[in-house]
Design a protein that fits this description.
Number of domains: 1
Strand content: 5-15%
Order of helices and strands: HEHHEHEHEHHEEHH
Distance between the termini: 41 Å
Bound molecules: 3-methylbut-3-enyl trihydrogen diphosphate, magnesium ion
Structural class: alpha/beta
Radius of gyration: 19 Å
CATH topology: Undecaprenyl pyrophosphate synthetase
Number of strands: 6
Largest sheet: 6 strands, parallel
CATH class: Alpha Beta
Helix content: 40-55%
Strand order of the largest sheet: 3-4-2-1-5-6
Oligomer: single chain
Length: 255
């Protein structure tokens, strides 16, 4: 408890990342470590989602994106996929009051249509219910992958060019960004991945172009608020240069 206070106190409220994205990984290994079936790890992972969402809302972070289920995760054993879908449905029903209490707005990115009908309904209902909330935007990536999203964007732009509503020479970074499922969401400032894997796994490839990356060996069910604060502090110690030199940034800051 005391350590949590210390980390919390070290966070600079003025330099909060606007958008934090997390690849929540390691539920299966956590379960294995405890001699349990994989689903217990996923259930424990939901507890972490609850904790971190509350901490992010309290810290004044504007956007928190959580990678919950990837396009590639459809290739897992059917039993695990079914159980995960069921867990999503239960979780969303259970967590909606907490989202309301914390003034959190729920958003989703990904191919929602691929989810079972009851999961789609639950998510749509929760998005509607929380749509007027003005605090943290919690973005859940469901049946999401970056390549899926980019293909979809390219197809849409091609159609617009075909129909004459978009000129090829007008396509720029903004046009591409606006055709992604994250169109109204700023790019992540900080990307966290738990469980020690050092890869992006098809997550927000376009959007993380200049994000700060933070990898921790901690398994997602073990990821505490304190660990989250540690990541924020680490982020705040970095110099984001965006291709410029350190000297340039120092002059700009003084000016
Ligand atoms: C992350 O945990 C959750 C999902 C991908 C749905 P994993 O299930 O990938 O856990 P590990 O990587 O097997 O430990
Ligand atoms: C990434 O985790 C996807 C989610 C966290 C939802 P995975 O466990 O599926 O990633 P890989 O397969 O190890 O790269
Ligand atoms: Mg994994």
């Amino acid at each position: 408890m005391e350590a949590e206070q210390t980390y919390k106190d070290r966070i600079d409220k003025e330099r909060m990342p606007r958008h934090v994205a997390i690849i929540m990984d390691g539920n299966g290994r956590w379960a294995k470590k405890h001699g349990l079936a994989r689903m217990f790890g996923h259930r424990q992972g939901v507890e972490t989602v609850h904790r971190i969402t509350e901490a992010a809302a309290e810290a004044g972070i504007r956007y928190l994106t959580l990678y919950a289920f990837s396009t590639e995760n459809w290739n897992r054993p059917q039993q695990e996929v079914d159980a995960l879908m069921e867990l999503l449905v239960d979780t969303i029903a259970k967590e909606t009051p907490t989202l309301m209490k914390n003034n959190v707005q729920l958003l989703t990115i990904g191919d929602l249509e691929r989810l079972p009908k009851n999961a789609q309904d639950k998510f749509r209902h929760c998005m509607e219910q929380t749509s007027q909330n003005t605090g943290l935007r919690l973005v859940i990536a469901l049946s999401y992958s970056s390549r899926w999203e980019i293909i979809r964007a390219v197809q849409q732009m091609a159609k617009e060019v075909q129909s004459g509503t978009l000129r090829v020479e007008d396509i720029d970074e903004t046009t591409v960004s606006q055709h992604l499922t994250t169109c109204n969401i700023p790019d992540p400032d900080l990307l966290i991945r738990t469980s020690g894997e050092l890869r992006i796994s098809n997550f927000l490839l376009w959007q993380v172009a200049y994000s700060e990356l933070y990898f921790t060996p901690c398994l997602w069910p073990d990821f505490t608020v304190e660990e989250f604060y540690k990541a924020l502090i680490d982020y705040q110690g970095r110099e984001r240069r965006f291709g410029k030199t350190s000297e340039q940034l120092n002059t700009e800051n003084k000016g």
